[in-house]
């Protein structure tokens, strides 16, 4: 360290002056209006020992102040956060990421080569557009399965909590609720996780967190395809209104032809139906625990067979839909609705009301006049202005029922009235 430090006193042009820190979302905290102080050449980088610009900020209420620990060159070199040193894309320790990508890089760990190496890297970074990490990582290929399985997609703000109050641990803290430190028991010193250090994290060597994550990955559950070979539907959960049908279509189409995609916005889920079982199996295997779209990790499960759906709401998919009250009983379904499309929610068959008395019912097999009912979506569910539970007034009122051509016309008259609302 001493060599490097003295070298830096004359090699001042090497010092780093930055306008903004490179941080992960967790370190920044949940407040979008974070205030930072900036201190030029405030400290030595904990990795390369060159002075760099230190930023300090508080990542939210009741959190501890954080500061940048390594310089931006070191951060870009490994694509890590300047503060927590976790990978910026996956929120994982360098060791896990490099293991998953099969990377082995040549960052020198001794003081002798370090400065020469960082200088070269800086030159290389200056020539790039700054959007890709430097070093071997910049040349790595697509993310591996392991990486997608383990990646953290949401910020983990607990990591910003204050450190444990050492007085409280000894039973001597007199500050009570005012104490800015955390009154929690520390982890067992024999726990391997208690021994973490910044250099091991950065270089990706003997990092206890990484070892635990890699161990976890080997015991992760897998998704068994159902024995009923007619099932070609996958349940996709956790959409949270951000993932749209086109996103799902774009992703799942790579596994084979899709029969349909049914979105259920109220349950934040969707059903993706493949035409072939083999495609569904590949999709399930390649997506289970690994599918991340628009920053959300999506839940993948197998759908239920048609027979099971008819008997009750799905349990496996977590979509137990109660029958919707107030659905019109007297209306026939729009003829274009395909069966596989609506069957998932048990809504395809509306609650059957008593058969209309009086004139004989008009056969539903009647072909609709072109352009009138075709493509008409089913009436919206749970509509506040929907007709009362009794349903619509009987369709045959005032209509000459012996003329079958008037029947579809009547349907047309009623449907747009409730759809427009
Ligand atoms: Zn550095
Ligand atoms: Zn961070
Ligand atoms: Zn305390």
From TrEMBL:
InterPro entries: Cwc2/Slt11, Nucleotide-bd_a/b_plait_sf, RBD_domain_sf, RRM_dom, STL11/RBM22-like_N, Znf-CCCH_RBM22, Znf_CCCH, Znf_CCCH_sf. One of its GO terms (molecular function) is pre-mRNA binding. A zinc finger (C3H1-type) spans 159-186. Gene3D superfamilies: 3.30.70.330, Zinc finger, CCCH-type. Keywords: Cytoplasm, Metal-binding, mRNA processing, mRNA splicing, Nucleus, RNA-binding, Spliceosome, Zinc, Zinc-finger. One of its GO terms (biological process) is RNA splicing. Residues 159-186 form the C3H1-type domain. Residues 232-305 form the RRM domain. It is found in: Cytoplasm; Nucleus. Residues 304-327 are annotated as: Disordered. GO terms for cellular component: Prp19 complex; U2-type catalytic step 1 spliceosome; U2-type catalytic step 2 spliceosome. CDD domains: RRM_RBM22. Belongs to the SLT11 family. This is Pre-mRNA-splicing factor RBM22. The lineage of its organism: Eukaryota, Metazoa, Cnidaria, Anthozoa, Hexacorallia. The gene is RBM22.
